[in-house]
Specification:
With 83 residues, this protein is mainly β. The protein has helices at residues 2-6, 13-16; strands at residues 35-39, 44-52, 55-58, 67-70, 78-80.
Length: 83
């Protein structure tokens, strides 16, 4: 989903986490458009797009539809601001 939305060549979560510095502060309030990552800096396992106000849009897996989720129920570990 992220590759499609941003038109970037990086396909995997691991490749996408290398697109910028990892910000660990105040992840629940990641700015609109930031990529929110789940897992450690070295082993991210999921990525979502911040909608601001503590909400994300994500494609949980290939068997579920794209959905908007409140981060208070699924908090990320860090984010990367996309420019």
């Amino acid at each position: 989903m992220v590759q499609y939305c941003y038109g970037i060549p990086q396909r995997t979560t691991y490749e996408q986490q290398a697109l910028g510095p990892h910000i660990h502060d105040n992840v629940l309030n990641a700015p609109y458009g930031a990529l929110v990552f789940y897992g450690s800096d070295d082993a991210p396992y999921h990525v979502a797009i911040s909608l601001g106000d503590g909400r994300i849009i994500q494609a949980p897996n290939e068997n579920e539809t794209v959905k908007i989720t409140d981060q208070q129920y699924f908090p990320g570990n860090y984010y990367v601001v996309m420019h």
